[in-house]
User: What shape does this take?
Amino acid sequence: MIKVGIIGTSSLTSGEIIKILLKHPRAKLAYLESENFAGKKVWEVHKFLKGVLDLNLKNFSEEEITENCSVTFISKQHNYASGISRNLIAKGVRVIDLSADFRLKDAEVYRKWYGIKHKDHALLKKAVYGLSELYSEKIKKALLVANPGCYPTSIILGCAPLFANSLVDPKETIVSSYSGVSGAGRIAKPGINLFMDSFRNLFPYNVATHRHTPEIEQELSIIGNTQVNLTFVPHVAPLDKGILSTMYLKPVKETSEDDLIKLYKKVYDQCPFIRVYENGNFPSTLNVVDTNFCDIGIKYDPKNSRIIVVSAIDNLIKGAAGQAVQNMNLMMGFDETEGLPSGKKV
Assistant: This one.
């Protein structure tokens, strides 16, 4: 049994991590930090925990974390984890960061897109990108994992087999994604996540300027061994949870729908949380919400010479908390499905 800490306990993502860990057979919550709610019980912040979990929320204490935890999740605003992770790792605590602090390998790219100077350039180079379907062996050895963003998870998993096999033009990728309102977090953001903004409404935001763009381009460029440029347009959908991403890619040679589906099934055959759909079938958010699955459907349009890939995930589970626990499982030598909703394909 390992002892686990959470730094930034009040976030929606942390609430989902707690739900998962309460059912995890090999992990026990030992430390919960919250700078805004220190002194309160965790169930006073996450009401669903009343009568379930009675732990106190505490101020940050490096000493207490290192004494009591084998691994800790950091669910804070950007530029926080980069200031505390080095000391935690040095004292034997493995770190899974759910912010963007360690996702981008180039500190200058981080500064450009997030408007903040990175605090630890050297540690940035050592972090492992936590997309377990692609980097499981590296994650198993990692001391620091950068948990991917929710949009990048759906998009990279949807596109990876095509770029890995050099089947598409790296300069001709267009992505349209739709996210539930929970993707904007708990803090009120007028125009994005207030009820009257999102109820019965569907709208784009950060068109071609979303901060997840360089993360997606970075990883697809690594996978394809060539510079990838994409146009990314995210939308807010009138849903509480879920992401649906549609990718439009230009093939560099003739292909067929059957061949593409066979390729995807082969690539993801050993991945317990990837479900590849049969010809003519496509995923929906309803089928992945509250699970750690990423569902993928593929269409080839010979008339316009386009490959169309549709992927769906739960933005708070596979796009955040579930993926973080999946990474924890790999880091600690557990089966990656342990404790996770809808674990093994049968």
Remarks:
- The chain has a mean pLDDT of 93.
